[in-house]
Design brief:
The chain is an all-alpha fold. It is built from two helices and no strands. The protein is flat.
Length: about 90
């Protein structure tokens, strides 16, 4: 997978990348299970692990965003205080 930080790609491209990863994963595991219930159990675990990690990522992002908002609010307070002192 190419380095996404350096590439300027759209959501459709990212979706296609995920689809390709899904295809590759399926081709790697399709012969490992003897029946549909086994495969479905594996897929349920895979999906659960992915979603749990996605939730952790969202929590990290939300904490980071909250931190950024706090800094922004602090900067506004400092800017406003500075402007108030200039008028004196």
């Amino acid at each position: 997978m190419e380095d996404m930080e350096e590439a300027n790609i759209g959501l459709a491209d990212i979706k296609e990348m995920g689809y390709e990863v899904g295809e590759n994963l399926f081709s790697q595991i399709k012969d490992k299970f003897q029946n549909t219930p086994d495969f479905e159990a594996y897929f349920a675990g895979l999906k659960m692990g992915f979603l749990d990690n996605l939730e952790d990522l969202e929590e990290d992002y939300n904490e980071s965003t909250q931190y950024d908002k706090t800094i922004l609010e602090s900067n506004r307070w400092i800017d406003n205080s500075f402007e108030s002192n200039k008028e004196d």
